[in-house]
Write a structure and sequence with these properties.
The structure is a single chain. This protein is mainly β. The protein folds into 2 domains: 113 residues, no CATH class; 136 residues, Galactose-binding domain-like (Jelly Rolls, Sandwich), CATH 2.60.120.260. The chain has 1 helix and 15 strands. The longest helix is centred in the first third of the chain and has 4 residues.
C-alpha cells in the first residue's frame, strides 16, 4: 500500500514467488537480486533466511509504504517470522534511529532439545544404503507422526527395494517394531533384516493419510554394528491408487527377554 492507497498497486501470489523460488525449495541459491542463504533442513523448518533486493522494480513512495508478506501457517500455529528492511539516506540526511541496546535485542528461537528414547530411529534420519528406483526423502506430516515427519519413498514399482542402515549398539536379540504410514496410494511391503524376511507383507492402503503402528515384526538376533533393513514392494491393495508409495515413520529395537 503506497502513500495510504486503499487497494495495493503492487501484489503477488505469496512469499515463495516473491523470493524467486517455488514450493518452498530447501536448496540454497544465490542470484543478483534474490537469494536463499540459509535453510536448516530439507523440511523447511528451523531457521530459514531469504532476501530480495527491490532494485529493478523499485516502488517509489512519498509518505508511506505498507507491505505484507504471506506466511505459510495460520495464526493458530505459532511461527516466528521477522523481516529486515534496509533504508538508505540521501546525501546530507540524518538517521533518526539510534542503535538498539543489547538488553533490548532478541535472540532467535532455539528448538528445544528432544531426548530420543534408546533404540528408536526416525525413518527420515536413517542412512540410505541403496534403492533400486525412485526417491526417498523426508516429508512433513504433522503432529500425529513422530518428529512430525517420515521417510517418503516414491517413484518405485513392485520388485523395487529400499535398504536402510540400522546402527545396532550391541549384539543380542531384539523385538523389531516399525511406525509406518498408510494412505490411498501406498503399496504392500515385505520387510527384511540382513536379507532375511521378517513378519508378513504389510498392506499400507488406507483411504486417507494416517500413522500406522507400532507394528511388531518379530524377534531378530542382531550383531553389533550396521545392519540392513530392507523394504521390498510386492504389490498394492486392489482399492489403492497404484503409486506403490512407502512411508517409514520410525524404527524401534527393544531388547527381547
Amino acid at each position: 500500500f503506497v502513500d495510504g492507497e486503499k487497494f495495493p498497486s503492487t501484489f503477488g501470489t505469496g512469499s515463495e514467488d516473491y523470493f524467486g523460488y517455488a514450493w518452498c525449495d530447501p536448496n540454497l541459491f544465490q542470484n543478483a537480486y534474490h537469494n536463499q542463504t540459509r535453510n536448516d533442513n530439507t523440511n523447511n523448518t528451523d531457521h530459514i533466511s531469504v532476501n530480495r533486493w527491490q532494485i529493478a522494480e523499485n516502488i517509489p513512495f512519498q509518505k508511506s509504504f505498507d507491505g505484507y508478506i504471506e506466511k505459510y501457517f495460520p495464526n493458530s500455529r505459532p511461527t516466528h517470522y521477522a523481516s529486515t528492511v534496509y533504508w538508505y539516506l540521501a546525501p546530507g540526511g540524518v538517521d533518526p534511529y539510534t542503535p538498539v541496546s543489547l538488553k533490548e535485542r532478541l535472540n532467535w528461537y532455539l528448538r528445544p532439545i528432544v531426548k530420543k528414547k534408546p533404540g528408536i530411529w526416525e525413518g527420515e534420519d536413517l542412512k540410505i544404503i541403496s534403492k533400486s528406483a525412485g526417491t526417498a526423502e523426508p516429508q512433513m506430516l504433522g503432529e500425529r507422526f513422530s518428529e512430525e515427519s517420515h521417510l517418503w519413498w516414491i517413484g518405485a514399482r513392485p520388485g523395487d527395494t529400499l535398504t536402510l542402515a540400522l546402527d545396532v549398539p550391541k549384539s543380542g536379540k531384539y523385538t523389531l517394531l516399525l511406525g509406518l504410514t498408510k494412505a490411498i496410494d501406498y503399496g504392500i511391503v515385505q520387510w527384511s533384516i540382513d536379507g532375511k524376511e521378517i513378519g508378513e507383507p504389510m498392506d499400507l492402503y488406507n483411504d486417507g493419510v494416517i500413522p500406522f503402528g507400532p507394528v511388531e515384526l518379530g524377534v531378530v538376533d542382531l550383531k553389533k554394528g550396521e545392519r540392513k533393513l530392507t523394504a521390498a514392494i510386492i504389490g498394492a491393495n486392489e482399492k489403492a491408487i497404484k503409486q506403490y508409495m512407502v512411508g517409514l515413520d520410525y524404527v524401534n529395537l527393544k531388547a527381547a527377554e
